[in-house]
Amino acid sequence: METPPGFAQYPRPQGLTSGVRALPPGAHIEAIGEAYTLFSREWTTWVAATLVAVGIYIVLYIPTLFVSSYLQYGDFSIAPQPGRLPNPVGFLESFLFSLVPACVYTMLGAGMIKMAIRQIRGLPIQVSDVFSGFRDVPRLIGAYICFAIMMLVGTIFCCIPGLWVMGAFSLTPFLIIDQKMGVFEALGASYRAAGGIVVGLTMFGLLILLSLVHSAGLIACGVGVLASLPVALIAMTIHYYYFFPEAFPSTPTPAFS
């Protein structure tokens, strides 16, 4: 009897109406090229959305620095000064105040992920989509807290488990935003999909590669981030499609062994 082919050799759909090809679950550098293609088709929308998101964050972040300094030290100087110790109560107040821009940035990031998911599905996108992630913020923050704790524990025992955690749970935000999963449900689904040692570490490697792509945009006088940020975000969203093709109903999901 003929031996059935391996997992990656099973026939998969040709791709979505957007042109994104279906690849086996895992880290694929090809996704960066496909992400750039999608970005180039709607580059004006992506650039405008990135300008809005980055602009709002900067407008909120800069005043937060001065207010946090005042709450902790009683003055608005953000330059480090030797021997200056923060007020414990002011430190707590500063932390709570800094949650405001963090929540706003989380909302904007969720909106941009929704934009990427819509474009991968072949649906139209618009700049206003960047504000569509408001309802996902509480669950995303809860997931990020759990994620940080697990990464800290993994790093304490050894560096490798900490790196694996980053890759194994990297799909959690997409499951929360797109499939409306709860925090622990999304963490579990991401672990089941990318929790293998090899897969988790290769996904961590992908995150490092995408961060380098984003950093390249920052180096280019900061202007390049208007392209590098969307490309990195779209590329990671394409990997969400690789792992969860059933979440994209326009493409029939093949049966795997």
Give a description of the structure:
- The chain has about 260 residues and is an all-alpha fold.
- The protein has helices at about 30-40, 45-75, 90-120, 135-155, 160-170, 170-180, 185-195, 195-220, 225-245.
- The longest helix has about 35 residues, at about 90-120.
- The protein starts with about 30 loop residues before the first helix and ends in a 14-residue tail after the last helix.
- Mean pLDDT is about 85; it is low at about 1-10 and about 250-255.
Write the layout of secondary structure elements.
Elements lengths: L29 H12 L1 H31 L14 H33 L16 H21 L1 H10 L3 H8 L3 H12 L2 H23 L5 H19 L14
Helix pairs in contact: 1-9, 2-3, 2-9, 3-4, 3-6, 3-9, 4-5, 4-7, 5-8, 6-7, 8-9
Short note summarizing the structure:
With 257 residues, the protein is an all-alpha fold. The chain is built from nine helices and no strands. 66% of the residues lie in helices and 0% in strands.
Which terms would index this structure?
single chain, 257 residues, 9 helices, 66% helix, globular, disordered N terminus
Q: Helix content range of the residues, please?
A: 55-70%
Overall body shape: globular
The number of domains is 1
**Rg computed from alpha carbons, rounded to a whole number of angstroms:** 20 Å
Approximately how much beta-strand content do the residues carry? under 5%
Indicate the low-confidence ranges by residue numbers: 1-11, 251-257
Structural class: mainly alpha
